[in-house]
Amino acid sequence: MESSITRQEALELLREYNKEPFHLQHGFTVEGVMRWYADELGYGEEADFWAITGLLHDIDFELYPQQHCQKAPELLRKGGVSEEMVRAVCSHGYGICSDTRPEHEMEKVLFAADELTGLIGAAARMRPSKSTQDMEVSSLKKKFKDKKFAAGCSRDSPGSGASGLGAGHPDGADHFGYAVLRGQGERRDGGAGAGVR
To answer: Residue 193 falls within a domain, yes or no?
Structure first.
């Protein structure tokens, strides 16, 4: 998997359709998680592809929330994105707004990371530091179990996606939570690491 566009081109494409700081930050966060996980799982040579897919995964959500993952192919193709990346972006909405099933390991990571980064971001905003840098997976798991916490985030997507990734790791989903926490530090948006503002 090789990216057909550069990170700078991807950023310009994202900003063409997204202006809200929250949506941009979410893209940066998922980008960092995807880059971290590509390296962690032995796909380092594909890290740019994984990261750019994470950056662009919600390209259509701000302007076309009712057509999420349906409008994305058109916007991505206009920007010169490969069909492989278009497919991966669409797969993160599987069962919600897309029929494209995540099959490649990268697509499964994206599927799980999308919702889980939202949950982690909400948990970080409740902390005095407003950061994930001092957050432990155990405290995140407590929040995750509380259905009242971040009620709008799906608990099914991260769980089912993470369970498919635990094969090489004895701690399975805990490893995924750790990866998301540490991967947020990989953001390349010029922000302060994984802080949530």
So the answer is: no
